[in-house]
């Protein structure tokens, strides 16, 4: 689709000091390292730009500006300088040309200078603040620049905000289009609303901004799919991970259990790192809880329902493959042995499937060995907290400086049942775990299991 | 204003060779802890134009490990092609063997049995394949086709036990599982087309060089039921150029005993035409269609794979990029007072409230030791308070400025307080600490901010109430 204009939309992000302008840029750019954020005045002292890219094109250029701090005195200076009602930009330019005014109002002049060369402005408001006179002075001065202004109410996720009071005050100065955007508690829909609202103030920028919204949505969908796959791979690896110990040696068993826990924990940390990188939060540290790998022992009874189900599944597969082999044998003999060959093939295929699985356990027992694996509780715990981490990262603005706190995602009963079933099957295939076999990734059974896990992990849209 | 939604950009597709190269390299690197992100191939790909998949493919082509994979991938694909041919030849041999088994020693061809073994079985398998193909989420491309992939992947793994061999085997298996579905189907149809061609060829050669009579034997089914079936089959066979539909008399003769000598050519032609039209032709057309579909089909990389996710961080266009700072460097110091501090007067202290959230009626209670002068919330009230203070005689001993911890101290407040201080010494008192704490604010840090402002404007450090 052709865009309406080739040049990126220039947006100045302005507002009183310490209202979250740099935070807004961090969230919109998904860059937790942009600028400097601190709960004090004048943290940003210089205009700094960031380009928002969709595909190979820069669609928007955002300019973070220093906070306005002395609008009252600036307003007095503008009034003292005189000038007509209809030549706001000229009055601002005259002020910018005045060396003494520039010295006194250094921050404010940088803001105004940037706004004059921008297409529009986002006026960031700390919605917890009352509508003070100094803020109204700021709006009056910014209006002199004759650029469309979209007020952005920040901190609206907090309980004691004054969004209604602000909306009323803004309507009094003809600013009826207002966006609510919390830079700490992020929502993709709210961000889309911000861009769409800005598009209503501008002529011929709608398609570019819609493309930006679409790009952000596509990226989010890709991130989500990749996150679920990362968790599914972790679960298959952790479920299949096993540690062999001697049965009559309690110390060796404990050492083996510790080693298994460490291997699973290291694998989980890799998943966490992948998720943080994926959501561009690599600077944030996630304090993983200790893995509740209690017993570590998985009952390897041949009467275990999961084992039997898997055996049945394998028998089915084996029978099918065997029967097909038999059919081919019939063809080679011109159909004269039709029937006999098929039955033999089915028995051969099914027999391999049945004998293979419990056999290994019996051999282990005969050798005096025991294989330790993660139990259901540990694996469900892993799934729950990784899902919670993904949910936390998806709702976290890049401006947030608090540590990531992710608990356990709540899994409904059908999902738990489906997960338990699938993980039980994953357990009896240690060769599908990359923690045991570096070539596990090549196995198509592992790939199918991961795909099925992704489907289970994806919450249903109710 | 409604904005028409833009169409999402289509996912770029890769050729099988490129796709396998990317996938095999990803598997090698994943096994090694993830892709290297700082090597010449990655840097070169990051500088290139185009969508992420193309950049990943370029990186795989430039990467030394990817280059080493190119040869084995080419050989594996050649092996797959060889497998297709071998499968067709095997089918041909099996078909010829099946046809051979039909031609008994008594020089009589049982047409019913010949059609059952040579035509009904492949048709049944075709039906099964169709069912699996149309089944939602099915991966099957037919057993013979899947066998080609499994064999290719298995051989790659068996002959090269290195990480590269395992990766290539995995990539081939993955391709066979998802992307190679069309090729696997083509292989299946090639096998059966070979089978029918083999049978046809063997029968045609036998009919040219040997003399056979034909019969339609059945133990269970009578002539009344079979005659219309044979007539219908005859009409289908007559679609083949040069083949005539058998007459009712010929059908009756066939059902009673072996066909008369003059009908030998007719029944041989019908059998061959039926095998060609109902057996070989559909399989051949399907094999060609799937081969063409495979040639035209390109594959998309699954970008949600961890290896690609890590690469995306470097190769994908970032959602945003800093464009740097604008304008001159900021001055060292921002706030400066214009006038010196006043001496303390002899009058009683006065108090003012600065941008407080405490209700106006309660503000005076926060400074019981002073006479309440008013609150400063906007330019007009600030100006009025300055005027009122300047007009007071005798001049106050001090001005107690009640400021809120909820407010970020700013230059506007600092310069106004400095103006007050030029009339009477200002004593700063910070209140509303509980409200600031309720907002989750750090009282000590905020008090320090106010202390810094006071220092900038040469005021006494603030006291913190509550």
Which helices and strands occur, and which strands form pairs?
The complex is a heterodimer of chains A (462) and B (466).
Chain A: E1 9-15, H1 21-29, E2 47-54, E3 57-64, H2 71-81, H3 88-97, H4 99-104, H5 106-116, E4 120-126, H6 133-143, E5 149-154, H7 163-172, E6 179-180, H8 188-201, H9 206-240, E7 242-246, H10 250-278, H11 305-332, H12 340-366, E8 369-373, H13 376-394, H14 413-427, H15 444-457
Chain B: H1 16-31, H2 40-47, H3 52-62, H4 64-102, E1 108-110, H5 111-134, H6 143-159, H7 163-179, H8 181-209, E2 213-215, H9 223-237, H10 248-256, H11 264-296, H12 306-315, E3 320-326, E4 350-354, H13 360-363, E5 371-376, H14 379-391, E6 399-404, H15 411-421, E7 426-431, H16 433-438, H17 443-456, E8 463-464
Q: In a few lines, what is going on in this structure?
A:
Helices cover 54% and strands 10% of the residues of chain A.
Helicity level of chain B, as a percent range? 55-70%
Query: What is the helix tally of chain B?
Result: 17
Rg of chain B: 46 Å
Estimated radius of gyration of chain A: 32 Å
Look at the helices and sheets of chain B and give the structural class: alpha/beta
Strand arrangement in the largest pleated sheet of chain A: 2-3-1-4-5-6
Tell the overall outline of chain A: elongated
Based on DSSP secondary structure assignment, what is the total number of beta strands of chain A? 8
The run of helices and strands of chain A is: EHEEHHHHEHEHEHHEHHHEHHH
Which structural category fits the helices and strands of chain A? Answer: alpha/beta
- Counted by DSSP, the helix tally of chain A is 15
Number of domain units of chain B: 2
Tally of strands of chain B = 8
What does the largest sheet of chain B look like?
A: 5 strands, parallel
Q: Which oligomeric form is depicted?
A: heterodimer
Distance between the termini of chain A: 33 Å
Residue ranges of chain B: pLDDT <50 for 5 or more in a row? 1-9
Low-confidence segments of chain A? 283-357
Largest sheet of chain A: 6 strands, mixed
Strand content of chain A: 5-15%
């Amino acid at each position: 689709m052709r865009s309406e204009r080739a040049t990126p939309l220039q947006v100045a992000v302005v507002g009183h000091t310490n209202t979250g302008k740099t935070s807004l840029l961090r969230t919109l750019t998904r860059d937790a390292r942009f600028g400097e954020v601190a709960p004090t005045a004048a943290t940003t002292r210089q205009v700094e730009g960031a380009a928002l890219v969709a595909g190979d094109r820069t669609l928007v250029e955002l300019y973070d500006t220093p906070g306005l701090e002395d609008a009252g005195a600036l307003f007095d200076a503008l009034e003292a300088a005189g000038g007509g009602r209809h030549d706001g930009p000229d009055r601002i330019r005259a002020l910018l040309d005045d060396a003494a005014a520039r010295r006194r109002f250094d921050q404010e002049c940088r803001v105004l200078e940037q706004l004059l060369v921008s297409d529009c402005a986002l006026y960031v408001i700390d919605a917890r603040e009352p509508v003070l006179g100094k803020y109204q002075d700021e709006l009056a001065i910014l209006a002199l620049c004759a650029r469309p202004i979209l007020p952005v109410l920040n901190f609206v996720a907090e309980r004691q905000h004054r969004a209604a009071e602000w909306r009323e005050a803004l309507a009094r100065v003809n600013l009826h289009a207002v966006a609510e955007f919390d830079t700490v508690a992020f929502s993709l829909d709210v961000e889309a609303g911000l861009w769409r609202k800005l598009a209503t103030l501008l002529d011929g920028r709608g398609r570019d901004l819609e493309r930006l919204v679409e790009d952000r949505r596509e990226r989010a969908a890709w991130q989500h799919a990749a996150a679920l796959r990362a968790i599914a791979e972790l679960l298959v690896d952790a479920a299949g991970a096993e540690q062999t110990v001697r049965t009559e040696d309690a110390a060796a068993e404990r050492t083996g259990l510790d080693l298994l826990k460490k291997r699973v924990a290291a694998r989980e940390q890799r998943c966490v790192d992948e998720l943080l990188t994926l959501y561009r939060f690599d600077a944030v540290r996630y304090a993983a809880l200790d893995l509740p790998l209690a017993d570590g022992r998985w009952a390897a009874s041949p009467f275990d329902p999961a084992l039997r189900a898997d055996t049945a599944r394998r028998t089915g597969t084996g029978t099918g493959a065997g029967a097909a082999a038999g059919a081919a044998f019939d063809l080679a003999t011109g159909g004269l042995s039709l029937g006999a060959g098929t039955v033999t093939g089915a028995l051969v295929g099914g027999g391999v499937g049945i004998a293979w699985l419990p056999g290994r356990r019996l051999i282990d027992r005969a050798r005096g060995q025991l294989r330790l694996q993660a139990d259901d509780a540990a694996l469900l715990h892993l799934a729950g907290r990784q899902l919670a981490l993904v949910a936390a990262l998806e709702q976290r603005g890049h401006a947030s400086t608090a540590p990531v706190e992710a608990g356990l995602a709540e899994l409904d009963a059908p999902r738990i049942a489906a997960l338990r079933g699938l993980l039980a099957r994953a357990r009896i295939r240690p060769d599908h775990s990359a923690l045991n076999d570096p070539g596990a990734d090549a196995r198509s059974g592992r790939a199918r299991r991961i795909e099925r896990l992704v489907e289970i992990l994806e919450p249903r849209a109710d | 204003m409604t904005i028409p939604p833009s169409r999402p950009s289509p996912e770029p597709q890769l050729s099988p060779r490129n796709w396998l190269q990317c996938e095999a390299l990803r598997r090698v690197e994943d096994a090694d802890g993830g892709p290297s992100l700082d090597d010449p191939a990655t840097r070169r790909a990051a500088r290139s134009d185009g969508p992420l998949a193309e950049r990943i493919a370029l990186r795989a082509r430039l990467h030394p490990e990817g280059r080493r994979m190119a040869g084995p991938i080419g050989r594996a694909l050649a092996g797959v092609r060889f497998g297709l041919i071998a499968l067709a030849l095997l089918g041909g041999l099996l078909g010829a063997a099946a046809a051979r088994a039909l031609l008994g020693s008594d020089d009589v061809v049982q047409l019913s049995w010949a059609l059952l073994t040579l035509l009904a079985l492949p048709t049944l398998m075709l039906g099964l394949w169709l069912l699996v193909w149309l089944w939602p989420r099915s991966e099957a491309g037919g057993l013979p086709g899947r066998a080609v992939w499994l064999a290719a992947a298995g051989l790659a793994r068996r002959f090269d036990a290195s990480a590269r061999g395992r990766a290539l085997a995995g990539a081939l298996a993955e391709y066979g599982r998802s992307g190679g579905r069309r090729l696997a189907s083509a292989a299946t149809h090639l096998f059966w087309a070979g089978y029918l061609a083999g049978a046809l060829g063997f029968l045609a050669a036998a009919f040219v060089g040997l003399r056979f009579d034909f019969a339609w034997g059945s133990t269970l089914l009578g002539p009344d039921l079979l005659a219309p079936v044979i007539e219908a089959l005859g009409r289908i066979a007559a679609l083949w150029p040069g083949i005539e539909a058998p007459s009712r008399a010929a059908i009756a003769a066939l059902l009673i005993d072996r066909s008369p000598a003059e009908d030998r050519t007719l029944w041989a032609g019908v059998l061959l035409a039926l095998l060609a039209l109902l057996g070989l032709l559909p399989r051949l057309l399907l094999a060609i269609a799937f081969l063409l579909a495979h040639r035209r089909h390109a594959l998309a990389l699954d970008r949600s794979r961890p290896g690609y996710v890590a690469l995306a961080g470097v190769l994908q266009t970032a959602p945003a990029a800093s464009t740097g700072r604008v304008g001159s460097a900021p001055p060292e110091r921002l706030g400066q007072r214009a006038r010196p501090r006043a001496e303390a007067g002899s009058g009683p202290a006065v108090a003012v409230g600065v941008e407080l959230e405490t209700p106006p009626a309660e503000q005076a209670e926060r400074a019981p030791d002073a006479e309440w002068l008013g609150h400063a919330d906007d330019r007009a009230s600030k100006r009025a308070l300055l005027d009122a203070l300047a007009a007071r005689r005798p001049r106050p001993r001090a001005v107690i400025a009640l400021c809120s911890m909820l407010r970020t101290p700013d230059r506007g407040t600092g310069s106004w307080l400095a103006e007050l201080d030029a009339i009477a010494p200002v004593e700063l008192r910070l209140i509303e600490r509980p409200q600031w704490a309720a907002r989750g604010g750090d009282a000590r840090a905020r008090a320090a901010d106010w202390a810094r402002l006071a220092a900038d404007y040469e005021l006494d450090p603030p006291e913190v109430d509550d």
